[in-house]
What does this fold into?
Amino acid sequence: CKLEKLVEQGTHLVRWGAVVEGQPDISVGCDNVHGGEAMTAHLLGMGRRRIAFLGDISEHCPEFSDRYLGHCRALRAAGLAPDPALQVDAAHSTEQMGHEALRALLARGVDFDAVFGTSDLIALGAMRALAEAGLHVPGQVAVVGFDDIQLSQYVEPPLTTVRVPAHQIGATSAQMLLNIIQSGHRPASVFLETELVIRESCGARLKNDRL
It folds into this structure.
């Protein structure tokens, strides 16, 4: 691949993205597994039990698949089995893909009381589809995302999300690249911690919460 050729040519590379075993370059990324687990645990703590997950979880999207892994861990920790009918692929991280994925979920006729979008854009598209279907957020369906893009705090209702430390990732990547150039040594890829940002799209704790 192009990255492998660049590394073979002696090009120094540090990228922002998933840390994948055997990759030729060095990555600085966030702990997507923990972020997905923490968000789903929060939804469960709010009394939600049928949590739809929108996003491509194939090997082609390692960051999204890690978020789904964390999501499933939280479900199992609460004694709930992941339901394949509640997972819908969204091939790209766009509002349109989130809108289409939510419409596909509705077409399945399955019950759900929360939607976890693997990105804020996917979650925002899902919110639009829910509004078109006459479903209230968060009264009937809680919606959460991942990334904490600027738009997420200005939509109605403001979106609960997982904050990715973008500034810290940029600063860490630059410092690692300088260290490689100066020392010639290849450091290990690193994970940075994520943070839950709780806003109104989750609503209040449901009275039927059994945890």
